[in-house]
């Protein structure tokens, strides 16, 4: 994600890159060509010759010329470094998941409120064109109550980023991957009344999958499903289907653009902005910092709730379908 953010920064205005920090000497040299990922493309060879280079975060946070930090660290390091950065009078963008557990996420949000600095989690789906199209269509209020929603995200267990395979550092495949879709469900529909889930986990074989059901007070049901399906070969995909009283909206990264199928039998291609979601989220963060306004589009308390709900989803999987009451 550090490589992805660095490439996206080329498109961001009001944001000057002054330093990089890594304990990997190859990365610190600017050679990111070995980096892989689901989105954002492969790493590149970048020119870091004019940048300050730090091998530990504490000297970087002590640098008075740095006003904001972009944390693309293993998830287990997010809380400590983000809080230290906020206490060092820096604005903070932290990659998703915000933290490994709700208590840690709440601590980060509380520290941001105490410091008055900007804290934002990089929940990139909120800025990706197909999901912006969905939010805009629902936000117009013309489709009525949602009745069912499906969010699915699948990929191979990563052969890169060894820490991702360690649940103590990443939270596991489902937690790291589907935090996107849990966050989008909360963003669109708010917290559910209860959660149930089934699935299977065998990290040694690269399997970590879930089928979760969020039950809403009005009877609506949202399904968040997917995960890791064996290592290396299985292709990445993401999709959604949302059915409301006034129609169904569907998208698939496999080739179906966001489309509204109306109650009257007509269909409409939705306006899906052709934007780099990573550049858009970084631009939004930069604007919030420069203008001194909190990130209303991606507030830290909502990101903390996404962590809590994803954790609850995993607990529900362990109970094999039993409904668990949701109190975020």
Largest sheet: 9 strands, mixed
- Average pLDDT value? 95
Spatial ordering of strands, largest sheet: 13-12-11-10-6-9-8-7-14
Low-confidence stretches: none
- Evaluate the radius of gyration: 20 Å
Number of helices: 10
Strand proportion, as a percent range, falls in 25-35%
Query: What is the structural class?
Result: alpha/beta
Determine the fraction of residues in helical runs and give it as a percent range: 25-40%
Query: What's the total count of β strands?
Result: 14
Q: Give the helices and strands as they follow along the chain.
A: HEHEHEHEHEHEHHEEEEEEEHHE
Assign an overall shape: globular
Span from first to last CA? 28 Å
Question: What can you tell me about this protein's structure?
Answer:
The chain is an alpha/beta fold and 328 residues long. It has a 9-stranded mixed β-sheet with strand order 13-12-11-10-6-9-8-7-14. It has a 3-stranded parallel β-sheet with strand order 3-4-5, with helices on both faces. It is globular and about 60 Å long.
Layout of strands and helices, then pairs:
Elements: H1 2-8, E1 19-21, H2 25-28, E2 52-54, H3 57-61, E3 68-71, H4 78-87, E4 91-95, H5 102-115, E5 119-122, H6 129-139, E6 146-157, H7 167-170, H8 173-189, E7 194-202, E8 207-215, E9 221-231, E10 237-244, E11 247-252, E12 256-262, E13 267-269, H9 277-291, H10 300-318, E14 324-325
Parallel strand pairs: 1-2, 3-4, 4-5, 6-9
Antiparallel strand pairs: 6-10, 7-8, 7-14, 8-9, 10-11, 11-12, 12-13
Helix pairs in contact: 1-9, 4-5, 5-10, 8-10
């Amino acid at each position: 994600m550090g490589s992805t953010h660095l490439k996206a920064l080329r498109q961001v205005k009001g944001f000057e890159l002054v330093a990089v920090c890594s304990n990997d000497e190859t990365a610190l040299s600017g050679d990111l060509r070995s980096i892989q990922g689901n989105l954002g493309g492969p790493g590149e060879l970048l020119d870091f010759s004019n940048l300050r280079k730090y091998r530990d975060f504490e000297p970087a946070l002590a640098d008075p010329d740095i006003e904001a930090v972009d944390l693309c660290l293993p998830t287990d390091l997010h809380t400590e470094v983000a809080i230290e950065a906020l206490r060092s009078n820096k604005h903070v963008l932290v990659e998703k998941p915000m933290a490994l557990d709700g208590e840690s996420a709440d601590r980060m949000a509380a520290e941001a409120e105490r410091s008055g600095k900007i804290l934002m989690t990089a929940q990139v789906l909120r800025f990706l064109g197909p999901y912006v199209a969905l939010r805009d269509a629902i936000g117009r209020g013309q489709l009525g109550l949602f009745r069912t929603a499906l969010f699915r995200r699948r990929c191979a267990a990563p052969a890169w980023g060894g820490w991702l395979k360690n649940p103590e550092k990443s939270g596991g495949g489902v937690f790291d991957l589907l935090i996107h879709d849990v966050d989008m469900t909360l963003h669109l529909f708010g917290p559910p009344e209860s959660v149930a889930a089934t699935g299977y986990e065998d990290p040694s074989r690269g399997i970590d999958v879930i089928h979760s059901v969020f039950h809403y007070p009005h009877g609506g049901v949202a399904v968040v499903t997917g995960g890791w399906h064996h290592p290396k070969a299985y292709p990445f995909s993401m999709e959604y289907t949302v059915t409301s009283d006034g129609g169904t909206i569907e998208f698939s990264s496999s080739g179906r653009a966001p489309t509204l199928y109306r109650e009257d039998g007509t269909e409409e291609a939705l306006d899906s902005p052709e934007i780099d979601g990573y550049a858009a989220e970084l631009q939004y963060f930069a604007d919030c910092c420069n203008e001194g306004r909190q990130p209303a589009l991606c507030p830290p308390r909502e990101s903390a709730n996404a962590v809590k709900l994803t954790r609850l989803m995993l607990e529900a999987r362990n109970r094999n379908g039993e409904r668990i009451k949701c109190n975020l």
